[in-house]
Specification:
By secondary structure, the protein is of the alpha/beta class. The protein has 21 helices and 16 strands. It folds into two domains: 158 residues, Rossmann fold, CATH 3.40.50; 213 residues. Strand 8 and strand 9 form a beta hairpin. Helix 11 runs antiparallel to helix 12 and helix 11 packs across helix 16.
Length: 468
Amino acid sequence: MLFPGLVGYDDTVIPQVVNAVLSRHNFILLGLRGQAKTRLARMLTSLLDPLMPYIAGCEIRDHPLRPLCQRCREKVATLGDETPLAWMDREIRYVEKLATPDVTIADMIGDIDPIKAARAGQDIASELTMHFGLLPRANRGLFVVNELPDLAGKVQVGLFNVMQEGDIQIKGYPVRLPLDVMLVFTANPEDYTARGKIITPLKDRIGSEIRTHYPLSVGHGMDITRQEAWTTRQSPVSVQVPPYIREVIEQVAFLAREDKRIDKRSGVSQRLPITVLENVVSNAERRALRTKESEAVPRILDLYAALPSITGKLELEYEGELKGGDAIGRELIRNAVGKVFNSYFDGVNFRQIVQWFELGGALKLDESMSSSELLQQLSQIQDLLESTRKLGLGVSESDAMRAAAGEFVLEGLYSHRRISRNEELEFVAGDRSSREERFREEQESGRRGFDARRGGGNAGGGGRRNLN
């Protein structure tokens, strides 16, 4: 694999990067936060030779046969084949700079060093008195600038002069530096295209513009989250994360990216499901330690405990600010549960479970409740634990797994307004307004099915299958 660990880019981003490299282009990675732009840039070093010779002591790591700086040219002219060489590995050939408004030409290109001039007895205008910046020091390697639009305009001018003409001016003195360096930039699309953020000549000199993206499928997102999240940890308890919990966490991110109350220009980073999963596992681990259980299995209530890792990553629009980050986070979790619940239980009859609540039954959940205590309460509800077999659970599963599955079923019914849950986290029968709304939905669904049959279509065409 060319770039191991980059999931979901095999058919989109990676081929474009390969084309840019083969074309010897300087290129820019455009994408929202959390799209692995910097990771991709750092992995480009894997394309470099393991070792490369350079003239020993040279600040810009000159090629032994084609030295650029005056000092190395004089050394080669004097010593010839006896010129001392050193070797650099591929990691040293990578130089990265985060662009900020206070970055100067001296930082990026270089400056005259009066102390060096005084010590060497050189004229201040001599090239031998120059202190090289980051870009010349990246000679024969990769130079990556993160958040390119944040660079001041005059620094951007210095960059495109080096990229195209190979010359720079230090304090008014022209210096010829035809560097052998590939420049890679990263930027947010909104900043990149905004007027005044990037000067046109620099944009014109960037050979390829490559757009990154968030995972295109929930499966890809789950693979990334599983790879990046810190869930395999040293602990006195064994942590088991059910597949449906992973799906719900990923769906939270996907639904947030589609929510109109969340700023799409800022994006919803892939770090959201990663940190949520870590928080969920930590909450389950904490509960298992307190209840002295040997196995920690995350439950849906652990997702609500992980709200701090959701709200801090959402940039809200005006409507979202009015509602509040906590409320939107809870709504995202509820909708995500409903979506995953449908994928497992579409068409399953839950009438017996709903009837248990309608006859006056109630169940109060507590995230600190042990698995055996929760399972004992869930077993009072007819058909509930039997329905968890749809999640792939057998009778030999641990109490923690069965309890988490039973709670997921109840949360799924709550997300579809079949039952209600009050502020004390107590599941009760659905209120009248919820039942009436669901009745209207079922009537509407029935009418759509009837219209489809009249039109000669499939009886189920066009309508969502309702939970019985």
